[in-house]
Design goal:
The complex is a heterodimer of chains A (504) and B (482). Chain A is mainly α and 504 residues long. Chain A has 20 helices and two strands. Chain A has a domain of 222 residues. A two-stranded antiparallel sheet of chain A has the order 1-2. In chain A, helix 3 packs antiparallel against helix 4, helix 10 packs antiparallel against helix 13 and helix 10 packs parallel to helix 20. The longest helix of chain A is centred in the middle third of the chain and has 35 residues. Chain B is mostly helical. Chain B has a domain of 206 residues. Helices cover 75% and strands 3% of the residues of chain B. A two-stranded antiparallel ribbon of chain B has the order 1-2. In chain B, a hairpin with a 2-residue loop joins strand 1 and strand 2. In chain B, helix 4 packs parallel to helix 14 and helix 6 runs antiparallel to helix 7. The radius of gyration of chain B is 21 Å and the shape is globular. Classes of the chains: A mainly alpha (504), B mainly alpha (482). Chains A and B meet through helix 17, helix 18 and helix 20 of A and strand 1, helix 6 and helix 7 of B.
Chain lengths: 504, 482
């Protein structure tokens, strides 16, 4: 058998192996090389899978049977358009963040635990990739726990002692979420006698006990919503993002919540079928209401934050509102908006948090613990860190949804989906909420570009190139995917169409 | 090379060169002039094909399936492109005098952003569909923001806030949904003669969509979304002159004319524009009254611009072929006249450091060239011969009479009187009042040569187009069926 056939397994195994190796070798530098190589290899595998899926006819699925056990008994890995799209996003971000992170890690994490950081990063990456690629519901839970446990450690590695409480809070809420998730899967297993997601969906249609199905749906929805930080289940996110090391924040913001959205889409459209989710329950209305709350409440809170990381963390909660709003429309364009925004927002937010990492490095003093990036530090910073500040502004434009950036494409499809359903008031709400993004991005602009440099500013240097280049690749991507969308919209439309087709 | 692509790339390359030449101001300013000259030549190259009825095209990228970033040069875009690129040359000469004369800081950023604004303006002029137009409309807002806030003071920051909030706010809340709606119902956003909207949309639907477009185009400064224009006057004068008398505001009214002609079509709008005539008429008169009481010269000019922009909207909303010709002509006429007035205001500021109308007693004797040019610009604003303002007003009045639009005629009459009321006293003051004691204590002469050259050139243009209006007329006439 050739290597190409084993790509789905390699996708997860490569980063997974690098974790124990990093622990065994107990050396920060070697661990960095190993894990970064593993992440780039995973990225290469994701791109190769993408190309393989591209060759299949529309709606085609690539399947891989672990240990040659045929599904539904064995674990099956399934790669379709949506899967490979998310795989590319997750592994690509990981590779860039790891490459970038070296200098920032030196400053933000104690030297003795560097190798642990890399090991945990690799585990987290492997977990997220596993969740995405597996076609087995229980396997999703296993990978969810792997990635979550690794995430708790990563957050706790932050130098600020508040990172510990942030991590603890996330641990409690994340565990509740995972428990709810596994209870939901348990219900489904009882009803259908299978754990294979595709098989589950096929068998669930003949199940006569709607109340048990609804219970399963409820548990899964709440469990996954906790992980994806749907307002008001987002309580863990702002602290976690604020106090975690910058590289961890960048990686989590781009991937963790996005993979949870992916799981939600998989279960809603693949298992329950839209008929149940969207017609027998007021779920779209609930989703719509919560999304709108997220758009306005979270974005508004973001405007009034003093800590830059916390501001963009709340912005993430708001932006997740756009993604779930798209789901609630239950239409091709709505789902397209969700999938495209999942990608575009991931790219822009990763860029912003990476640049903030550089900013923290630039304003900090050598030897001292990393400073908290508040607006006080930003005064006149654009003159001293021009590339970093310009990058944050450009990626911020994508958060606003200015045309020519990725965010605009998502907004376009959201507005289109709302118009198709003649919900004109929603069009107004979507656009009004994006003005809130203008408010917080421009707070940054005014602070960095207009306030005079304070007298005791100290020495501030531009971030090193090795950090700027990966961050600027993401900034460039967030603009490029607003101009040429054959990759993003092409696959999102394709995926949305096949998801809705399989549901009916 | 595709001539449109060349037109878009030239200012960008110029901007890049200027950014690299930070340390060599002479080199940087030579580059500005070179880019401006080359750009004008490039636009001019497309004039003959357009006059002959051809429309050069360019398709760049396809950000949404079936919706490309595409360009096509039609007569109105050609006219706008010619004005913007031609006046960039003059403004560049002027800027050199002004920025050096006032020892402004961050000059490289200024020239780079200026070039970028021009690229965005030309992209708007040549846009082939609503998506492209909207894209560069927003780009223009963002690249002019650093120019508006150039001074970096508290006042500049506040002005920048108003500028951004009104322009981004209106375009996001109203213009974007209008564009998406057109795509939703028509399946295309291409500009086509006669319109693209499907039949049977209902008069109310059409009126609502038109309202979204005209209020969404905040750059057209229709009341109540006009406040950004006076706020933007904190910018250095060359910015006020080229961007806020020509490029940015004209991009606004240009968008409205283009949408009316090529998205709705004149026929589809029949009977759905009375309210627009009324609002535009109100803006014309109300802004003139504000101007009448403004003592700050640039503020007075800004409100005059608000008023004059609504002439174009009014002319378009009348829907008569003659008034559409007037709208296109007035874009050109107002551009030349108003840039002259702003140049003069900047000239006075540079030479005498005066900003208020009440300080201008007797200044005409010290700055004869500046104030003579100012006088010519004034005549054009009022619509008196021998200036080009008379030509466009003539067509506007003829169009309104043909439609028997008495309200519009009344507005034109009142506004002509008001224009005379707030501009002629300045000229009179400058030439016939004695110098104040304070001014006598501080002698000064004319502004630096580049400034005087530039404002004489635009004043001469204002006169020349009265005697030779063939070219803009020919382009404007192509817009409506004979």
């Amino acid at each position: 058998m050739s290597l190409a056939q084993h790509l789905p397994a390699l996708q997860v195994v490569l980063p997974l192996i690098s974790a124990p190796l990093a622990v065994l070798l107990r050396h920060g530098g070697v661990a960095f090389l190993l894990v970064t190589a593993g992440a780039w290899a995973a990225f290469a595998a994701a791109v190769a899978l993408w190309l393989q899926v591209d060759l299949l006819p529309a709606g085609g699925v690539l399947t891989y049977h672990i240990g040659n056990w045929a599904p539904p008994w064995g674990i099956e890995y399934r790669v379709d358009r949506l899967t490979s799209f998310v795989l590319v996003l997750v592994s690509g971000t990981a590779a860039l963040v790891l490459t970038y992170g070296h200098a920032s890690i030196e400053r933000e994490i104690a030297r003795a635990s560097h190798y642990l950081y890399y090991a945990m990063f690799a585990l987290c990456l492997a977990g997220l990739l596993g969740i995405t690629i597996t076609g087995d519901a229980f396997n999703v839970f296993v990978f969810l726990e792997i990635s979550s446990l690794a995430t708790y450690v990563l957050i706790a590695l932050g130098r600020d002692r508040r990172a510990l409480t942030a991590s603890y809070r996330y641990l409690i809420l994340g565990t509740i979420g995972a428990t709810f998730f596994v209870i939901g899967v348990g219900f489904l297993y009882l009803l259908t006698g299978t754990l294979n997601i595709a098989d589950m969906g096929a068998r669930l249609r003949d199940v006569e006990n709607p109340r048990a199905v609804l219970a399963a749906l409820a548990f899964l929805t709440v469990g996954i919503s906790l992980k994806l930080a749907l307002f008001p289940l987002h309580q863990w996110l702002p602290n976690a993002y604020t106090h975690a090391p910058s590289t961890v924040t960048a990686f989590l913001a781009a991937t963790a919540t996005k993979v949870s959205v992916y799981v939600l889409i998989r279960f809603y459209f693949g298992v329950f079928g839209e008929s149940l989710v969207f017609q027998r329950l007021p779920l779209p209305e609930i989703m719509l209401g919560l999304s709108l709350l997220a758009l306005f409440a979270a974005n508004l809170i973001a405007v009034f934050q003093d800590n830059l990381k916390r501001m963009f963390a709340y912005s993430s909660v708001g932006q997740i509102g756009y993604i779930t709003l798209g789901l609630s429309f239950d239409s091709v364009h709505g789902l397209t908006a969700s999938i495209v925004h999942l990608f575009n927002h991931g790219v822009a937010k990763a860029a912003i948090f990476l640049l903030i990492g550089g900013l923290v490095l630039g304003i900090g003093r050598p030897g001292a613990p990393p400073p908290v990036p508040t607006f006080k530090h930003l005064a006149g910073l654009a003159r001293r860190m021009p590339l970093t500040c310009l990058g944050i502004v450009l990626a911020g434009l994508s958060l606003i949804g200015v045309p020519g950036t990725g965010g605009f494409i998502s907004k376009w499809y959201l507005v289109l989906a709302a118009m198709e359903q003649r919900q004109y008031w929603l069009v107004g709400a979507i656009l009004l909420s994006s003005l809130l993004a203008v408010a917080y991005v421009w707070r940054f602009v005014e602070a960095a570009y207009f306030r005079p440099v304070p007298g005791d500013g100290g020495v501030v240097r531009e971030a090193p190139l090795v950090m700027l280049i990966p961050a600027w690749i993401l900034v460039a991507a967030s603009i490029w995917f607003g101009l040429d969308t054959s990759l993003t919209v092409g696959s999102a439309l394709d995926a949305a169409q096949s998801l809705l087709r399989s549901g009916t | 090379m595709n001539p449109i692509l060349a037109c878009l790339l030239l200012p960008l390359l110029g901007a890049l060169g200027m950014a690299l030449a930070t340390r060599a101001p002479d080199m940087r300013e030579t580059l500005t002039l070179a880019a401006a000259g080359a750009l004008f030549a490039c636009v001019l190259r497309m004039l003959d094909p357009v006059l002959a009825g051809q429309q050069p095209e360019l398709v760049l990228l396809e950000p949404l399936p079936g919706l490309a970033i595409a360009f096509r040069v039609e007569p109105l875009g050609m006219l706008f492109g010619l004005i913007a690129s031609g006046l960039w040359i003059v403004t560049s000469v002027y800027s050199i005098g002004y920025m050096r004369g006032n020892a402004e800081r961050h000059q490289t950023r200024f020239y780079v952003c200026f070039a970028l604004s021009l690229a965005a303006t030309l992209a708007i002029a040549f846009a082939a569909n609503l998506l492209t137009l909207f894209l560069f409309y927003e780009v223009l807002t963002l690249v002019t923001y650093p120019l508006v806030t150039h001074a970096g003071t508290h006042q500049a920051r506040m002005g920048g806030r108003t500028y951004l909030a009104l322009l981004l706010g209106t375009s996001m809340l109203f213009l974007l949904p209008a564009v998406v709606y057109v795509w939703h119902v028509a399946g295309t956003t291409d500009f086509r003669a006669g319109g693209i909207l499907p039949a049977g949309m209902g008069r109310e639907g059409i009126a609502v969509l038109l309202a979204l477009f005209v209020f969404g185009t905040g750059k057209a400064a229709l009341m109540p979304f006009h406040r950004w224009l006076p706020a933007a006057m904190v910018a250095p004068t060359p910015v006020s002159a080229l961007l806020h008398a020509v490029a940015v505001v004209k991009a606004g009214v240009f968008t409205i004319v283009k949408v009316v002609l090529y998205v709705f079509g004149l026929e589809a709008l029949r009977g759905a524009t009375e309210w627009l005539v009324a609002i535009a008429g109100f803006t014309v008169v109300a802004a003139s009254f504000v101007a009448l009481y403004a003592d700050n010269l640039k503020r007075r000019l800004a409100y005059s611009t608000v008023s004059q922009l609504s002439y174009v909207i009014l002319a378009t909303a009348l829907l008569a072929p003659l008034s559409v010709v007037a709208a296109a002509l007035h874009i050109a006429a107002h551009a030349l006249g108003k840039i002259t007035l702003f140049f003069a205001a900047g000239s006075i500021y540079t030479a005498a450091h005066k900003t208020e109308v009440s300080q201008l007693d007797g200044i005409g004797r010290r700055m004869p060239w500046t104030m003579a040019a100012f006088g010519i610009g004034t005549l054009s604003m009022i619509g008196l011969p021998p200036t080009v303002g008379f030509v466009s007003k003539w067509y506007l009045v003829s169009g309104a009479m043909g439609q028997q639009a008495w309200l519009a005629l009344g507005v034109l009459l009142i506004s002509t009187l008001l224009n005379a009321g707030y501009f002629l006293p300045i000229v009179w003051r400058a030439f016939f009042r004695p110098l104040s004691a304070e001014a006598l204590a501080r002698p000064h002469g004319e502004a630096p040569l580049p400034i005087v050259l530039a404002l004489c050139a635009t004043a001469a243009g204002t006169l020349a187009l009265f005697f030779f209006p063939e070219l803009p007329l020919q382009l404007a006439r192509q817009l409506v069926p004979a």
